[in-house]
Write a structure and sequence with these properties.
The protein is an alpha/beta fold. It contains eight helices and four strands, in the order αααβαβαβαβαα. The radius of gyration is 16 Å and the shape is globular.
Length: 212
């Protein structure tokens, strides 16, 4: 589970908790742990653009650790939000993943080409997301072009970060002000619907079939 651009906070912990409650082993690596937050953020966006860097190595280390845990079925999914959604999309073609959940993550112009051969992808975008305009339609087109099994939903009225529920006061006041201006922030209805969809999708593609 890959956190958003605000770092390792309450939102990603809450996401990990709801997946754990659904019976999944969940690990959320902190990609901002090795230096000042601004330095880590800059490095993380650079890694997304170049599609390589220490962040991908850290995510792989987390995946490898997870597969060694008792109860792991050897089917691993990746899920990300905002910046983390971009990583989830970039790693969907990695053969180590059996499913990917991309939530309002950046969509590269060449997505239709590099996603060929990717694992099944479920994607959620906000219809009012000003930072990723027409996200639902764009990723639907890319996944269809690539021939990837997928499920896409765009939520009318929801903006960026609509699944990330931060307690009041956790984010800087400047960010809170920007959220209001651009319609960003948590939306309970769309967030819960997305969770149900993701859980169902992961149940289909990650859980081992019951022994008969």
């Amino acid at each position: 589970m890959i956190h958003d651009a605000f770092g390792f906070g309450s939102a990603v912990k809450n996401h990990a908790d709801w997946l754990a409650e659904e019976g999944y082993l969940a690990i959320a690596p902190n990609l901002f742990s090795w230096d000042k937050k601004r330095t880590c953020l800059k490095s993380s966006f650079k890694a997304v653009r170049s599609r390589e860097g220490r962040q991908f190595e850290e995510i792989e280390a987390a995946r490898s650790w997870l597969t060694a845990q008792d109860g792991c079925t050897d089917k691993v999914g990746i899920i990300g939000f905002c910046m983390g959604g971009a990583y989830a999309l970039l790693l969907a073609p990695d053969s180590n993943y059996a499913a990917a959940s991309v939530n309002y993550g950046r969509i590269p112009e060449d997505a239709g080409e590099f996603l060929v051969g990717a694992c099944p992808v479920i994607a959620s975008y906000g219809g009012n997301d000003r930072s990723i305009k027409n996200g639902g339609a764009r990723i639907e087109a890319a996944l269809t072009q690539a021939g990837v099994v997928h499920e896409v939903k765009e939520y009318p009225g929801a903006g960026h970060l609509f699944m990330d529920n931060y307690p009041k006061g956790e984010l800087p006041k400047a960010i809170t002000a920007v959220e209001k201006v651009f319609g960003m922030g948590y939306r309970e209805g769309p967030a819960r619907d997305a969770q149900v969809r993701i859980t169902s999708f992961f149940n289909t593609h990650l859980k081992a079939p019951a022994n008969i």
